Amino acid sequence: MAQTAKFSVPLKPPHITIVGAGLGGLCLAQGLRQQGIAFDVYERDAALASRTQGYRIRIDHAGQQALKACLPAALFSVFQATGAMPVAGVNLVDTRLEAVSGKWVESWRRARGDQPADTGHGESADAQDLSANRQTLREVLMHGIEDRVHFGKAFVRYREDEDARVKTAFSDGSCAISDVLVAADGINSLVRRRRLPGAVPADTGFACLYGKTYATPATLARLSGLLPARTSIVFGDGLAVIVDPMRFRPPPAGYRLDMPDDYLYWAIIGAREALGIGWEAGDALQQDALAARLERITTGWHAGLRALFQQGDRASLAMMPIRTADVPAAWPSSAVTVLGDAIHAMSPAGGLGANTALHDAFLLSRQLGEAAAGRRSLRAAIGGYEAAMREHSARAILASLRGTEVLLGASGRHPERILAG
Ligand SMILES: Cc1cc2nc3c(=O)[nH]c(=O)nc-3n(C[C@H](O)[C@H](O)[C@H](O)COP(=O)(O)OP(=O)(O)OC[C@H]3O[C@@H](n4cnc5c(N)ncnc54)[C@H](O)[C@@H]3O)c2cc1C
Predict the structure, then answer these.
(1) Quick check: CB of 195 below 6 Å from ligand 1?
(2) Domain 15-81+134-202+324-419 grouped into CATH 3.40.1000.20
(3) Atom in ligand 1 nearest the alpha carbon of residue 51
(4) Do the bridges between strand 166-170 and strand 155-160 make them parallel or antiparallel, or are there none, so unpaired?
(5) pLDDT in tens, 158-168
(6) Record: fold of 86-131+204-323
(7) Strands across the sheet containing 90-94
(8) Global confidence as pTM
């Protein structure tokens, strides 16, 4: 495919096809661009903003370091500048907003001054997590690679040819030929379904109901003062709520970013029964039905907490079943590999899914850089990435299950195999 004027130097082989312009796929694309490696990203959605990307995403030390390694320095600064302003700690409370103690999961948030875990990036940094507005983060990740991200291209199938090239076909009848195909197409990945058919994430029996509430003066007046000041984790009967205040600075000049107004992000995690969501209907509930569920779930809660949901932005309401992967034992590498939720979906209770996807992107871009420089074969590079990815994602899945356990007192129907491992 033709190079575009966006890139000051021509991009070199191998050519990488990335399916999915989510956080992992776009971060990989940026990491490849940094190294001058040719790539194209194919996304099913018609545009970056064609679906509500309603929630905030907490980027931990490993995620930040992956972004730092993959993005040009100026763009990494934009990522930092567009994150929510830090808050002063965490409230651990019950639904009456009384303090509770003894419940904590290491991956939830590192306090300033904590020693960061060794993430393999080889440098120390401020270990403070950064809360990003998800859509803004995707806009940052798109910057400078717009010409290489192709929308309205739903993956349909691929074929590995004998000459070690991969032919990828899309729903509009077009196809791409490349040296490597990367599945970054999320939890329902069609690429994974073909590449690793046994690696299907299992339903935990839990679900997550999430949305946001704009921080207008009228709304803030109705909320308990506890909520806008700090992150809150609310422990209820068979469920838990995470509330995060998202206050933004003006966006940096020179970047076209659609910054949101300040809001409070919240997510309720619980057993489907506790959330009143049936097994069959859960995925398809509409906003009005979800709002009615919220009203029922929060009956009897502190009025200053209830107001958070009553004042919520109805359009942002969403529900999703929580599924978790069991990363399969090593598989023989080929020119088709997997990244992010496509291979290691995990409970959002650990706040690690996106961070793990970003770390994958960092690892894979570095390995492909080694191959591009002729220091490794392409197959060895992909195998090296997959081995490292399996190891770190298994740890993240485990931490996420532990997070679910602390929040809910149980980790779900599936995870015995992982916990035993
Ligand atoms: C409520 C909630 C809160 C969360 N909070 C956090 C958090 O704070 N921190 C954290 O680390 N993680 C968090 N997560 C998890 C995180 O959102 C995911 O792990 C992360 O988005 C995975 O990134 P990804 O790039 O692998 O997949 P995705 O972000 O899902 O991107 C996949 C992309 O592929 C596209 N696609 C799908 N099928 C096709 C196809 N056939 N052809 C072409 N394109 C396709 C999709 O449209 C999408 O753009 C949270 C999840 C939820 C639900």
Answers:
(1) no
(2) no
(3) 47
(4) antiparallel
(5) 999 878 899 99
(6) D-Amino Acid Oxidase; Chain A, domain 2 (3.30.9)
(7) 90-94, 231-235, 239-246, 263-271, 202-214, 318-324
(8) 0.91
